[in-house]
UniProtKB/TrEMBL annotation:
Originating species: Indicator maculatus
Xref: InterPro entries: Ribosomal_bL17, Ribosomal_bL17_sf
GO terms for biological process, alphabetical: translation
Protein name: Large ribosomal subunit protein bL17m
GO CC aspect terms: mitochondrial large ribosomal subunit
Family to which this protein belongs: Belongs to the bacterial ribosomal protein bL17 family.
Keywords noted in UniProt: Ribonucleoprotein, Ribosomal protein
Length: 82
């Protein structure tokens, strides 16, 4: 644990020195359904070198299914207005 003291003051303090605050963020993760249904969270340091925990959602507006549903809604709306 002695190496953690070095990391705290020599690495992390230097990284967050220019920031006015909010060095961490808390992300809720899915509950443990099979065990005890406990609420779970992860605390993440901002600017960490690891991949983000939250995967960015891809744009699905142009998928075939969504285009068909959009056309159906427009047809239904047009038929209701007649």
């Amino acid at each position: 644990e002695k190496d953690l003291i070095h990391k705290l003051f020599k690495v992390l303090a230097v990284r967050f020195q220019p920031h006015p605050g909010s060095y961490t963020r808390m992300l809720q993760i899915p509950n443990r359904d099979g065990i005890d249904r406990a609420k779970m969270a992860v605390i993440e340091l901002k600017g960490n070198p690891f991949p983000p925990l939250i995967v960015q959602r891809r744009d699905t507006e142009k998928t075939l299914l969504n285009q068909l549903l959009k056309g159906y809604r427009e047809d239904k709306k047009w038929a209701a207005s007649e």
